[in-house]
UniProtKB/TrEMBL annotation:
Its main location: nucleus. It comes from the Eukaryota. Residues 1-157 form the Prospero domain. PANTHER family: HOMEOBOX PROTEIN PROSPERO, HOMEOBOX PROTEIN PROSPERO/PROX-1/CEH-26. The keyword Ribosomal protein does not apply. GO terms for molecular function: DNA-binding transcription factor activity, RNA polymerase II-specific; RNA polymerase II cis-regulatory region sequence-specific DNA binding. This is Prospero domain-containing protein. GO terms for biological process: cell development; glial cell differentiation. It comes from Lottia gigantea.
Amino acid sequence: MLSPMHLRKAKLMFFYVRYPSSSILKVYFPDIKFNKNNTAQLVKWFSNFREFFYIQMEKYARQALAEGCKHPEELHVSTDSELFRVLTLHYNRNNQLEVPDSFRRCAQCSLREFFRSIISGKDAEPSWKKAIYKVIARLDESLPEYFKSPNWMEQLENV
């Protein structure tokens, strides 16, 4: 059975992987006896994490356009930006993990991809976000080894 601690771990893992395969999930959740239901639940969690992430990206891209932004290169996500704060509060509410800079770069890339699609009118097409999802999926990276450990929470303190 999945616990609130599993959910917390999955949220922190989202900083590194947005599209984990079921085989990756099995390696990084060694304490779970996987079956069809809990595998589906973990996959659903990541789907929900992505949905929140992409909703924020679209919102901030449209906001930038409304504020007069003309070029995606003008959009920057810094560690003190409102978008970054919203994302890190959602995935890392207790500040358990120092958010990797690669996540900030992923957020910036995502924001720019959404902006490009919106400014070019692709958002009028039914499946306009699929091309963005493919770009973002390529930004997944290796998870830190400590996530494999049953004592991963204690190991966060040493990171």
